[in-house]
Amino acid sequence: MKTFDVVTTIGLGxxxxxxxxLIAKSGIHVNGIDVNPKVVDAVNxxxxxxxxxxxxxxxxxxxxxxxxxxxxxxxxxxxxxxxVPTPFKGNxxxxxxxxxxxxxxxxxxxxxxxLLVIESTSPxxxxxxxxxxxxxxxxxxxxxxxxxxxPERVLPGNILYELKHNDRVIxxxxxxxxxxxxxxxxxxxxxxxxxxxxxxxxxxxxxxNSSRDVQIAFANELSIICDKAGINVWELIExxxxxxxxxxxxxxxxxxxxxxxxxxxxxxxxxxxxxQIIGKAREINNYKAFWCVEKIKNAKLQYRLKYGNDPxxxxxxxxxxxxxxxxxxxxxxxxAQKVMQAEQxxxxxxxxxxxxxxxxxxxxxxxxxxxxxxxxYLVAHDEFLKLPKVNDKLxxxxxxxxxxxxxxxxxxxxxxxxxx
Length: 420
Description:
By secondary structure, the chain is an alpha/beta fold. The chain has two domains: 6-197, Rossmann fold, CATH 3.40.50.720; 209-419, NAD(P)-binding Rossmann-like Domain (Rossmann fold, 3-Layer(aba) Sandwich), CATH 3.40.50. Helix content is 41%, strand content 13%.
């Protein structure tokens, strides 16, 4: 097996830094590149500025062993990996400008025989576009580089384990590139490596997350139907899942994160007529967050009509999923913003996984719970599971924490908890 000595990883975020750290742990020196000086400085001190279990310990170890160092500009290596963001533009078209910028940054230092692997989620054809960009500026390298696409498949909160043990799909611009990339990933990945071409690998990543988005949309739509029908959606799903071939997911307040809330648009924007279900699922999941906003506003209004004053409301959670600090595309954050646009008096925002926020003043979760007349569960953080199920507060449960009987409307006579 080919051995590799030096790797340059561009992007030290939620995927790039854990990946760079695992590569370094395998005995390959890694140059981590990021445009954020704070990130570079933190890594070189053996520290991290994101929340991910065990990552801080491993980063500290490989930095002290001088196997990982961080820089603002690309460093010459034999393998280059790109793990930068690929957001979408205002019209939901994919934005690959970061990928192209990363590519352009290494073009001057590329040499014959180098391997370039794109890990950023990308629309179909991106790897070929990167290839063409390189060869247009360095024609002497044409057909002398190995270029491949290999998307990550990880769950925040368990990234290190999944990067190492999950199966990977690897697609090169040619068979030689695919093989070269497989040799590289075999150095630190224990899961199976499945070979294909770059376009199929790109679509595979998009399809995986689009499939999950569709499944979540079914659960979210079902929760809205059950609310109107007076049915406890949590009990219904539990019973329906007793069927041996049914597995309905848990509804939430929408869909967020850097993958599921974004990747389907990469397909819809390119194939708008063909992607009917995928597009509709995106609409449903976006609507669920709006629906939650209206439920909170209505609860607040009914409280005011009943008691003659505004309630204190605790908005519990802003991350896009439980027990992480990642707020990217978070429906909970969107809900908090929309609710507080109307009025901030009496509103408390809770997110136990971050110390501060540049927009919201954060309140300790126990303090917010104790003070609140209405508790709105947006994210099922572990801390919230420890809170009591009391009858002197109105509970709006959008993420299945209380899993109590759904009550249609808002009844304040007994201040009974409701779930939606």
